[in-house]
Amino acid sequence: MIPREAFRGISPAIEHLEAARAALMRAVTAQRSERWCLALWGRFIRMRDGYRCVHCESVQKIQAHHIFRRVTFPHGKYELGNGITLCHGCHKSLHAKFNGRPLKSEPLNARGGDDQDEMAYLYGRLAADADDRGLDKERFYFISDRMLEYFVALQGYEPLLQDIQAGGTSRIHFAHAIWWSMPEKFYEMVYGQILSAVFAAKE
Fold first, then answer.
1. What are the tens digits of pLDDT across the range 25-38?
2. Under 8 Å CB-to-CB from 170, ≥6 apart: which residues?
3. pTM for this entry
4. Other beta carbons within 10 Å of 124
5. Which UniProt key words apply to this protein (predicted)?
6. Positive or negative, the Cα torsion across 146, 163, 142, 103?
7. Residue pLDDT, tens place only, 11-63
8. How far apart are CA 163 and CA 184, in angstroms?
């Protein structure tokens, strides 16, 4: 991992970034093809991130990566704050585990592919990169209420969402914080599963 003080600090021309953002918004609003919208989304993400891997700083074979997989939450496929630029090697390592569509009945990351620690790290890296390069997190790293509410449904932490609505924290910081540590809801679920297994064994 490259330390923050070694970041390149490349900032794109804001007018170009605004134009790329506007082009994506127009295409999504006009319901253009998913392929075209994703191409515009990827172009924006790579431009915003300075055309380099935000993890290792490589400029070779860079790709736009969905931090929270779009097969898991399709509504997040065009979210600006759900994308990060990675090189081919870093991108490939994230998809080395299961990369298929999860079943509705299975817990998140049941077969790999939706690792909480990886998501927390990438959202956090993105937030730090925005600060280091002086980019507006609410404009260029926006995550919709719909996606944040989905995170809350999985993880809990309703007070964090209220903090965003009150303007107390950025949306990208929320995405980092909610995946950073398991909430009480998770431990209650695991504890319930353990008790169920114990009672089943006694019968």
1. 999 999 999 999 99
2. 127, 137, 138, 141, 164
3. 0.72
4. 17
5. Endonuclease, Hydrolase, Nuclease
6. negative
7. 778 999 999 999 999 999 999 999 999 999 999 999 999 999 998 888 999 99
8. 19
